[in-house]
Amino acid sequence: MSYKDQIDLLKLPRHIAVIMDGNGRWAKGKGKLRVFGHHNGVLSVRDVVEGAGELGIEYLTLYTFSAENWSRPKFEVIAIMELLISTLNKEIAKLMKNNVRLNAIGDLNMLPDKCHKELDNAISKTAANTGLVLTLALSYSSRGEIVQAAKKLAAKVQSGELQPADIDEKMFEDNLYTGGMPNPELLIRTSGEYRISNYLLWQIAYAELYFTAKLWPDFRREDLYEAILDFQKRERRFGMTSEQVN
Ligand code: FPP
C-alpha cells in the first residue's frame, strides 16, 4: 500500500512547514553549480504543493530564502531571485488550476523590486482561491519577526491604545507575520541537518519535528506522505500525560 493510502484523512496536520535544504549539495554531487540545485528544487516545490493540496492540507509554509541568505555569494543571490521571478510568473496558471492561494512572510521590502512586484501580482491573482494556502518565507528571520511584533505592540502602548497588561500570547501571536494562521503541527527539514535555523521559532512550540536525509531536489510528494504518516503515529501530549490525552 502506498504511503498516501495509509494516511488517516481525519487526522491531517492543518499546517506543515518545510525547511527545504540540500540544493547546493545535490548539485555539487552531480558536478554542477549550486544554482542547478535550486532549479531542480523548484520541481520538488511543484510536486509537494500539488501533493499537499490533493491530500487536503490547509497550509504549507516553505522556507524559501532566509534573511541570512542575503550573505551568500552575489551570483547565487541574484540567481535565486531570478528563479523566483520566473517561477512565480510561470506557476500562476497552475496555482489557479489547483485552487492554491499564495502568501508570503518575511521582510519583503528587502526583495528586488521586480521580485516584489511578481510576488504581489501572484498573491493578488490567487487571493480568492479557497484551497491550500502556500506561504513562501522570503528574506525571513524568525527573531526579526518576533522583534517587529514587539515593536508594533510597543507603538500601541506608547500611543495609549494598549496597556502592557493587555498583551497576552494570543495578541502577540496575532502580530507575527503568520497572524491568523494556525501554528504548524509538523515541521519537515531535508538534507540530514538537525537545526531550526531561525524558522518559525514561536510557531513551532508544539510542532512535531521530522528530519530526512533526502536532499530537497530529491524530495517528492511520496516523501511528504511518509512524513505525514510518521506524524500520525506520534502521541502529541502538549505537556499532559499519556493517560490524559487518550
Ligand atoms: C537551501 O539549500 C535552499 C535555498 C536557500 C533556496 C531554496 C529555493 C528553492 C527551492 C527554489 C525556489 C523556490 C520557489 C518556491 C520558487 P542550500 O542551498 O542551503 O543547500 P546546501 O545546504 O546543500 O548548500
Overall description:
- The chain has about 250 residues and is α/β, with parallel strands linked by helices.
- The chain has one domain (about 15-230): Undecaprenyl pyrophosphate synthetase.
- The protein has helices at about 5, 25-30, 35-55, 75-95, 115-125, 140-160, 170-175, 220-230, 240-245; strands at about 15-20, 60-65, 100-105, 135-140, 185-190, 210.
- Helix 2 crosses helix 3, helix 3 (about 35-55) runs parallel beside helix 4 and helix 4 (about 75-95) packs parallel to helix 5.
- It is globular, with a radius of gyration of 19 Å.
- The two termini are about 30 Å apart.
- Farnesyl diphosphate binds near residues 21, 69, 80 and 191.
Report Rg: 19 Å
CATH architectural group: 3-Layer(aba) Sandwich
How many individual β-strands? 6
Distance between the termini: 28 Å
Helix count equals: 9
CATH topology title: Undecaprenyl pyrophosphate synthetase
Fill in the keyword field for this structure:
single chain; 246 residues; alpha/beta; Undecaprenyl pyrophosphate synthetase; six-stranded parallel β-sheet; 9 helices; binds farnesyl diphosphate
